[in-house]
C-alpha cells in the first residue's frame, strides 16, 4: 500500500509539473495558431492522403471512410463543408502547368500545419533551428512534413486492411458465437485504433521537432497522448452536442465547429509534448538539439531600481 501511495504521488507530481509547463508555454495560444493554419491545410492534407491510399484501396471506398470518420467527429454539415472544399481544389481534371502549380500548392498547403507543429514543439522543448541554415532547413522541413503526410496515408491503409479483415471474420464468427464475438471484435478494433494513434504521435514527437530524443521516452509520451486524444475526442463530441455552436453561429457554424475541434485537439497534442518533456527529465533522459538546432535558455532578470536611476543620469 505504501508503494502504491509513493507511485501515486510521483505520477501526481509528474502531471502537476506538466500542467505548470502547459501554462508557462502558453499552450492554448499555440493551439489557436495551429487551428488557424489547419483550417487552410486540412483540405490539401486530406486530399493527398486520399490520393496515396487510392493507389491501394478504391477511391470511392476511402472517400466514404474518411468522411464517415469526419461526420462522427465534427458532424455532417462540417464534414460536407470539408468535402466540398476538397472537390473544388482537386487538380485531376486540369492539365499541363495548372497541374504542376496545383500539386505544388497542395504540397505546401498540406505541410504547413506540420511546420507549425514543429515550431511549437521546438518552443516547448527549448530548442530552435539555427538561423544560418535557412533555405536548406526549410527544404528539409517541407520534405519531412510531406513524408509524414504520406506516412499518414500508409497508416490509414494498414488500418483499413485490418478493419476489413476484422469485419469479414466477425461476419463469419457472429453466426457461430453471436454474443461473445461482437464484444471481442469491438475491443480489437479499439485496440488497433489506439495503436495507430499512438504511432502517429510517436512519429511526430520523434522526427518532427529539431531535437534528439530516445524512443523509450517518446513511447511513454505517445501512449499518454493517445489516451488523452481518445478521451478528449469523446468529451469534445459531447461538448459539441450540448453547446451546438453550429446553430449559434449560423452560416459560419461549420467552420466554427472545425476550428473548435482542431483547437482542443491541438491542446491535447501540445499537452502530450509537455508531458513527454517532463517524463524524459523524470526518467533521467534529456532532449538535445539536433545538428540543425541550438538549445534555447530563458533567463529572467528582475527590475533593478538603482540600475535604472544610474541609466537616467
From TrEMBL:
Taken from the record, one Pfam family name reads: Virul_fac_BrkB
Q: Name one GO cellular component term.
A: plasma membrane
> Keywords in UniProt for this one?
Cell membrane, Membrane, Transmembrane, Transmembrane helix
Where it sits in the cell: the answer is: Cell membrane
The protein's matches in InterPro entries, at most eight in alphabetical order, are given as: Virul_fac_BrkB
Query: How does the entry describe its membrane topology?
Result: Multi-pass membrane protein
Note the superkingdom of the native organism. Bacteria
Q: What is its main location?
A: membrane
Q: Which residues cross the membrane?
A: 34-57, 97-115, 143-169, 181-208, 220-242, 248-271
Q: Does the keyword Transmembrane helix apply?
A: yes
The entry's protein name is Membrane protein
Species source reads: Albibacterium bauzanense
Amino acid at each position: 500500500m505504501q508503494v502504491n501511495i509513493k507511485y501515486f504521488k510521483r505520477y501526481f507530481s509528474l502531471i502537476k509539473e506538466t500542467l505548470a509547463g502547459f501554462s508557462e508555454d502558453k499552450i492554448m495560444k499555440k493551439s489557436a495558431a495551429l487551428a488557424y493554419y489547419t483550417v487552410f491545410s486540412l483540405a490539401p492534407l486530406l486530399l493527398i492522403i486520399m490520393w496515396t491510399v487510392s493507389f491501394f484501396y478504391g477511391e470511392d471506398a476511402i472517400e466514404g471512410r474518411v468522411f464517415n470518420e469526419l461526420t462522427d467527429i465534427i458532424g455532417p454539415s462540417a464534414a460536407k463543408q470539408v468535402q466540398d472544399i476538397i472537390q473544388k481544389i482537386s487538380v485531376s481534371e486540369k492539365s499541363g502547368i495548372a497541374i504542376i502549380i496545383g500539386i505544388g500548392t497542395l504540397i505546401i498547403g498540406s505541410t504547413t500545419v506540420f511546420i507549425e507543429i514543429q515550431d511549437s514543439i521546438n518552443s516547448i522543448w527549448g530548442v530552435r533551428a539555427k538561423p544560418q541554415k535557412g533555405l536548406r532547413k526549410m527544404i528539409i522541413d517541407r520534405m519531412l512534413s510531406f513524408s509524414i503526410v504520406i506516412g499518414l496515408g500508409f497508416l490509414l491503409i494498414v488500418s483499413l486492411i485490418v478493419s476489413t479483415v476484422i469485419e469479414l471474420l466477425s461476419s463469419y464468427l457472429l453466426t457461430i458465437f453471436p454474443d461473445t464475438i461482437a464484444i471481442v471484435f469491438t475491443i480489437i478494433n479499439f485496440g488497433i485504433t489506439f495503436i495507430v494513434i499512438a504511432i502517429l504521435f510517436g512519429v511526430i514527437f520523434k522526427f518532427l521537432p529539431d531535437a534528439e530524443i530516445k524512443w523509450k521516452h517518446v513511447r511513454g509520451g505517445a501512449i499518454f497522448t493517445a489516451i488523452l486524444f481518445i478521451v478528449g475526442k469523446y468529451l469534445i463530441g459531447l461538448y459539441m452536442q450540448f453547446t451546438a455552436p453550429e446553430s449559434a453561429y449560423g452560416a459560419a457554424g461549420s467552420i466554427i465547429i472545425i476550428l473548435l475541434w482542431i483547437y482542443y485537439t491541438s491542446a491535447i497534442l501540445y499537452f502530450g509534448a509537455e508531458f513527454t518533456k517532463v517524463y524524459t527529465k523524470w526518467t533521467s533522459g534529456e532532449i538535445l538539439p539536433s545538428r540543425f538546432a541550438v538549445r534555447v535558455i530563458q533567463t529572467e532578470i528582475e527590475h533593478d531600481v538603482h540600475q535604472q536611476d544610474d541609466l537616467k543620469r
